[in-house]
Fold:
Amino acid sequence: MNRFAFRLLFIAGLAASVVHADTLKINGSTTVNLPVAEAAELLRAEQKMVIQVDTQGGSSGGISMLGEGLVQIGMASKHVNEEDRLKFPKCKFKEIHVGEDAVALIVSADVWEGGVKSITKDQVKGIYEGVTTNWKQLGGPDKRIAFFNKEPGRGTWEVFANWVYGDHKKAPQVNFPEVGGNEETRNKVGSTRGALSQLSSSWADGKTVFALNIKDESGELIPPTNENIATKKYPLSRPLFLLTNGEPVNEAKTFVDFVLSDRGQALVKKHGYLPLAELK
Structure:
């Protein structure tokens, strides 16, 4: 290789390393991903930022990859717990609240049309523990309950398990088919007769999958509406976070500031979540 060619390769490699260093990497929750992905599109176009957004491993994946220093921003639909902080002692996890959501218990159209419009905590527990296996036991059609469980570690699953058992660590090991992100969950439930799963409420379209009301101990039916999420009346409400290692800096700060701005919060609302200004 002559000196000129070597120099060109060196310059190309140097340029590539600079681009790589400036790349803002974001990973985590498929729920938080919707407004984040659109914010990334805008910042790429307007500020020429280089941004990579992924949802590998959901909330737990976002926490782990931030803890390992593989991304600058994690996305999570659950709090960073003490175990996470102990596992990654060098990471000063900072939770940046960007919106609010709820976990809905969704059913397929045949279950909804068969008369099942609400469910209690005890009924959910019976299904999860394999005691209740047919919708007829809950006043619905004579069909087997096809339960799809969210992958453990997903923010959606932890909110569900915390509600049913008081602490997700107390949830028993179960043997149900597992689903990952929101789109996969909605597609599975929508295409399976007798199906039930946990899903971000904003993904319940009322066409292929339907969000059940939660019936509390007094018999009141509580739907996952924005009002009930804002006031925490709906029992499976949850915060949505961007996570950084300490205070965000450089490209991460630019991104976080945008999501917290009026334009960014409008994206949160556009995708069916509650922006910070509407929380009570």
User: Anything to note?
Assistant: Residues 3-99+238-278 form a domain with the D-Maltodextrin-Binding Protein; domain 2 fold (CATH 3.40.190.10). The chain has two domains: 3-99+238-278, 102-230.
